[in-house]
Design goal:
Blueprint lengths: L6 E5 L4 H11 L6 E2 L11 E2 L7 E5 L7 H15 L4 E6 L18 H12 L3 E5 L14 E4 L2 H10 L5 E5 L5 H11 L2 E8 L8 E5 L6 E9 L3 H12 L4 E9 L5 H6 L5 E5 L11 E4 L2 H12 L11
Parallel strand pairs: 1-4, 4-5, 5-6, 6-7, 8-9, 8-11, 11-12, 12-13, 13-14
Antiparallel strand pairs: 2-3, 9-10
Length: 312
């Protein structure tokens, strides 16, 4: 028999660790699925139980390689062909989000292309967290529930007991995010201004604001090679900061990120588990998103408002 009006959660292979914890947080079992791989590397995601008439939530972050995105698309297509009532893609980290506009000639707007691919596959709704740019929500013609890691980070920061906190943005593009943290924490904000000659390379960085004798908390949506974050932290210590900590939603942590962080003046780096841990580091701490994604899934299924469960 079909599972009419039932909630079922399935996981892609890249995010199974998080999906398991999401299911535990709302007290349901992880759906049975598999992903057989052919000899040439081609794979075929498959649901191992009926999903006819069910509300199917598929959890998969789309960080590189592109296989993770393709697997999600195939799982959406399989769910549609298996007569699921509604298909919701839960994408903790939405890859290709940095390609949100044409900032130079002859480049792709990758975020829009991914949105089109998900829609073409048959998705009915998207749940994601800390998009690189808020306007990416407008690339979709289906509802997008945009969660924020601040709902986890702000209570955590308050419990740290730091005496004189200042919130910092590592670049001008992150001022809105930093201003939100500063407003909710009742503190001031500083900004780093940087110039990039090309991706993952910084030419010059200057500090706008006062950090002397203060505990600095840098907030950002992602950390890739850690070049910007570590350089910003170094400048803040030079200007007399007492300490520097970093709170980032998505830890891409590409090489040489770990080495840079370990050798930097940064005291601690906090990231969510939207992307699995690739390497151990004494300075890098992980905060689970299972509770907020679990709550969002539960409320979407029950047609309840989710705006009250996260900070903007």
């Amino acid at each position: 028999m079909g599972k009419i009006d039932s909630l079922q959660i399935f996981s892609g292979t890249a995010t199974r660790y998080l999906t398991t914890n999401i299911c535990k947080s709302i007290g349901i079992e992880l759906g049975k699925s598999s992903c057989p791989v052919f000899a040439d590397g081609e794979y075929e995601p498959c649901y191992e139980e009926t999903i006819r008439g069910a509300h199917v939530f598929i959890v998969q972050s789309t960080f590189p390689p592109g296989d993770n995105l393709l697997e999600l698309l195939l799982m959406i297509d399989a769910a549609k062909r298996a007569s699921a009532a509604e298909i919701i893609a839960v994408i903790p980290y939405f890859g290709f989000a940095r390609q949100d506009r044409k900032d130079k000639p002859r480049v792709s707007i990758g975020a829009k292309l991914v949105a089109d691919l998900l829609s073409a596959a048959g998705v009915d709704r998207i749940i994601t967290m800390d998009l690189h740019a808020d306007q990416i929500q407008g690339f979709f013609n289906v509802p997008v529930d945009h969660l924020y890691a601040s709902s986890l980070f702000i209570p955590f920061i308050k419990k740290m007991g730091l005496k004189d906190v200042v919130i910092a943005s590592p670049d001008v593009g992150g001022t809105k995010r930093a201003n939100t943290y500063a407003r909710l924490l009742g503190t001031e904000m500083v900004i780093c201004h940087k110039s990039r000659p090309k991706p993952n390379m910084i030419n010059k960085m200057t500090l706008i604001g006062d950090v002397k004798d203060r505990d600095v908390i840098i907030v950002d949506d992602m950390i890739d090679t850690a070049g910007t974050i570590t350089k910003a932290a170094g400048i803040m210590m030079e200007y007399g900061a007492n300490s520097v900590r970093v709170f980032v939603a998505h830890g891409l942590l590409s090489e040489p990120a770990y080495e840079r962080i370990e050798n930097s003046v940064i005291k601690e780096v906090y990231v969510t588990d939207s992307i699995p841990c690739r390497k151990e580091s004494k300075k890098i701490k992980y905060i689970s998103t299972a509770c907020i994604f679990g709550e969002a899934i539960n409320r979407v299924f029950k047609n309840e408002s989710i705006s009250s469960i996260f900070y903007k």
